[in-house]
Amino acid sequence: MGEILSANSIEGVVRKDVPERVISRLPIYLQTVETIAATGQSTISSEALAARSGVSSSILRKDLSQLGRSGRRGVGYSCEDLASTLRTFLGLDRARTVAIIGAGRLGSALADYAGFKRRGLSLTAIFDTDEAKIGTVIGTLPVSDLTELSTWPEDIDLVVMAVPASAAPAAAHIAADAGVRGILNFAPTVLDAPDSVRVHQVDLASELQVLAYYSALDSAPLNPGFEEHRN
Ligand SMILES: NC(=O)c1ccc[n+]([C@@H]2O[C@H](COP(=O)([O-])OP(=O)(O)OC[C@H]3O[C@@H](n4cnc5c(N)ncnc54)[C@H](O)[C@@H]3O)[C@@H](O)[C@H]2O)c1
């Protein structure tokens, strides 16, 4: 069995000291533990949580120890406390507001996706510059004119950038000026955003090319074990 982590266990943790590869696994743990808690189960062992999250239990324990404390042994993790700790650590103790810039094929598909809400993300607006699209409704959201972003009545924490590459840098600056702190950039261009904004690039073609590399290997196992490729 693993440890109990209390909801206060991240006090004093310097978030920036936690490696990005660890951060990238935390949403998986959160989703897993929330799913388990929703069934009425109150505790879970590190082994079971690790298996359901697709990592080894030693990686899981190391990752969670980076959030601050180890606690009592022998009981397992409290699902509620661990979920609360992970939410707080990830900044999801309040719903993060998300806007999409670009109401084209990609932006529309994302705007119509119902899954953000249950992951603590509140899709609050979708912007475009095309007059033919402004005012139309995608999912439940009307498309707004990008010029409205700077005076949007609600704080927008995060932006999904789904505009052509040529339009993305200027749109990123509009978002930064409006106080946006993170941009998930689908446009195939490097965004030179100010230091106040964290940019993550998404490139599905590159991901597929990496997968193509692994699928072309004929001598090595495709899944060499959690320990080797996940830590
Ligand atoms: N990274 C990936 O894996 C991946 C996958 C698919 C698409 N993309 C990229 O995502 C972007 C969107 O793709 P798409 O297929 O939805 O394109 P699209 O042409 O269907 O939509 C682009 C939308 O952006 C709007 N737009 C143009 N300039 C704008 C601006 N300054 N401000 C706000 N809106 C503006 C257009 O009016 C249009 O509605 C493209 O850059 C594309 O290359 C990336």
From TrEMBL:
Transmembrane segments: none annotated. NAD(+) binds at residues 102-107. Coiled coil: none annotated. It holds the Pfam family Put_DNA-bind_N. One of its GO terms (molecular function) is DNA binding. Gene3D superfamilies: NAD(P)-binding Rossmann-like Domain (3.40.50.720), Winged helix-like DNA-binding domain superfamily/Winged helix DNA-binding domain (1.10.10.10). Signal peptide: none annotated. Keywords: Cytoplasm, DNA-binding, NAD, Repressor, Transcription, Transcription regulation. Residues 28-67 bind DNA. One of its GO terms (cellular component) is cytoplasm. The keyword NAD applies. One of its GO terms (biological process) is negative regulation of DNA-templated transcription. The keyword Transport does not apply. Its main location: cytoplasm. Residues 91-190 form the CoA-binding domain. It is found in: Cytoplasm. Belongs to the transcriptional regulatory Rex family. Homodimer. Modulates transcription in response to changes in cellular NADH/NAD(+) redox state. This is Redox-sensing transcriptional repressor Rex. The lineage of its organism: Bacteria, Bacillati, Actinomycetota, Actinomycetes, Micrococcales.
